Amino acid sequence: MKANRISLLLTLAVLLSLGSCKFIEKKGWFGKKKAAAEQAEQARRDSIRIADSLRIVEEKRFAEQARLDSLQRVREYEEEMRARYKYHVVLGSFKVPGNADHYETVVDSEGYEVVRLYSPNDFHLVSALRYDNSRDAWKKVMEFRYEGRDAWVYVDE
Q1: How far apart, in whole angstroms, are the C-alpha atoms of residue 40 and residue 28?
Q2: Which of 33, 50, 68, 112 could form an S-S bond across to 28 if both were Cys, CB 3.0 to 4.6 Å?
Q3: What is the pLDDT of residues 112-122, one digit of tens each?
Q4: Mind listing the pLDDT tens digit for each residue in 59-114?
């Protein structure tokens, strides 16, 4: 019985010395440190994932801006070419777009720089050459006519 009393007193002494559950929690005896470490690891993974997502979004935005800049340069070049070379030597005029497509490939295979034009009366014009002055354009038209091809000058204004 004396042993029971001693063990009871010892148990009471230990419980009183511990103070409260906060002491036990601080020591991590209930797995709080492990949970905190897991939570910190999860937060680290989340921040890495968010950083990667932001990097991908930034790369996509940069690529889209580069694409838009490229399209703008192409438009500016086309406008410059249109303003500079407004005399076109036209080899064919078609109402049906498919016929114009076919003839465009034929003329392209002959080595000409083919340009498709659209006339105000809804015809698709296949231009083989373009010039910055009418004299050179008419000279080339005469060469085509001498070869037996139908050609004329279209002024793109």
Answers
A1: 16
A2: 33
A3: 989 899 988 99
A4: 999 999 999 999 999 888 877 777 678 899 999 999 999 999 999 999 999 999 89
Alpha-carbon span 137 to 144, nearest angstrom = 11
Distance CA 88, CA 90 (A): 6
For residue 95 the two structure tokens come to 């109402």
| Cα distance between residue 85 and residue 154, in whole Å | 11
* C-alpha of 26 from chain center: 53
Single-letter amino acid code for the residue at 11: T
Q: Residue type for 31, please?
A: G
Written as one string, the DSSP assignment of 41-106 is HHHHHHHHHHHHHHHHHHHHHHHHHHHHHHHHHHHHHHHHHHHH--EEEEEEEESSHHHHHHHHHH
Provide, for the chain, the percentages of residues in helix, strand and coil under a 3-state DSSP scheme, each rounded to the nearest 5: 65, 15, 20
Long-range interactions of 110-118: CB distance < 8 A, separation 24+: 115/88, 117/88, 117/90, 117/154, 117/156
